Amino acid sequence: MATPSSALDTTQPTTVPVPVVSLKGLLPYWIFAGIVLMLAIYFVGAEEGATSMISGMGVHEFVHDARHLLGFPCH
Amino acid sequence: MMRTLLVRGMLVGVVAGLLAFLWAHFVGEPPVRAAIGVEEATAAKEAAAAGTKVAEEAPLVSRDTQETWGLGTGVIIFSVAIGGFLAMVFAIVYGRVSKLRARATVAAICGLGFLAISLVPLTKYPANPPAVGSGDTISERTEWFFVLIVIALFAVVAAVRLGKQLSERWGAANATFAAGLLFVVLIAVAHLALPNENEVKAGFPPQILWDFRLANLGTQAILWASLAFGFGIAAEHAIEGKPAWWRRDAADKSSAATTT
């Protein structure tokens, strides 16, 4: 392995990346964080536009410009 | 580990959202204001022709608030959510799908995420400034917009899987082109299959529309690029077991205490 390229690589870690989290351990995160994060995107992107969970237009009006500039259909 | 990655992903999301907000405020708001000006001028002209006055309705949220706090809140919440998903996708992909190191893995996820979530929808259902769009079709436009994002995400997964399978036989470069071709074909089919929507009224100034859509693209690009850079470093440090920067001083002190 005394090639010039490997000599240059000595500063790099030579280990192959291994998974850091088991898929089973990921599942609860995907379920709970996934729901919360999707809800966050929903409120910024679609609430009181196409559909509505709470009455009024306060949320829609408040994030109105963000919705437009992020590219969501707004009205 | 997942908790660390998730927290860091969302914290990087706050910073990325802040940067995207600055762009959206200073570059995106001028065309938004111009579009609202066009809308008001059209309404005034129509009212004058009909011999009535424009009904002034008090806005629920003032324009000043919408351009600053509202815009910032919305962009940052969106960015934090994307940062959280980035961390969770990273945890699945890292060490499983490719041999890429942490920072390269994050960069690849962000590049493909930008492609599927921002760029592909823009080609079919581009963002419109206020004053463009009719309330009658908002439901179906929103539905098709999200359907296209889901299709694009599936297309990315399909393309990556194909590329991975072919790379052993054809080599990485050929496999990447084949994967890219599959993605383009899938998106083209989706383009033809999904209904067209065009909400831009005749006579709307094209320059405002162009400026607005470029601002939209820039907002998304800054958001994803900042996430790629910030979370790349954060994920690399997490995997190497380095403490977060705000705990590093304390960790240095404690390690110094144990060695002496």
Mind explaining what this structure looks like?
- The complex is a heterodimer of chains A (75) and B (260).
- Chain A is an all-alpha fold and 75 residues long.
- Chain A has one domain.
- Chain A has four helices and no strands.
- Mean pLDDT of chain A is 80; it is low at 1-7.
- Chain B is mostly helical and 260 residues long.
- In chain B, helix 1 (2-50) runs antiparallel to helix 6, helix 2 packs across helix 6 (206-240) and helix 3 (102-124) packs antiparallel against helix 6.
- Chain B is flat and about 80 Å long.
- Chain B starts with a helix and ends with a helix.
- Classes of the chains: A mainly alpha (75), B mainly alpha (260).
- Chains A and B meet through helix 2, helix 3 and helix 4 of A and helix 1, helix 2, helix 3, helix 4 and helix 6 of B.
Shape of chain A: elongated
Low-confidence parts of chain A: 1-7
Following the backbone from N to C, one meets helices and strands of chain B in this order, namely: HHHHHHH
> What would you call the shape of chain B?
flat
Low-confidence stretches of chain B: none
The chain-level mean pLDDT of chain B equals 90
Class from helix and strand fractions of chain B: mainly alpha
Residues in helix, % of chain A: 40-55%
Rg of chain B, alpha carbons = 23 Å
The chain pair forming the largest interface, with residue counts per chain, is: A-B, 42 and 66 residues
Number of helices of chain A: 4
> DSSP strand (E) fraction of chain A?
under 5%
Give the beta-strand count of chain B: 0
Strand/helix succession of chain A = HHHH
Mean pLDDT of chain A: 80
Report the sheet with the most strands of chain B, covering strand number, pairing sense and barrel closure. none
Give the termini distance of chain B in whole angstroms.
29 Å
Q: What about the largest sheet of chain A? A: none
Number of helices in the DSSP assignment of chain B = 7
Radius of gyration of chain A: 23 Å
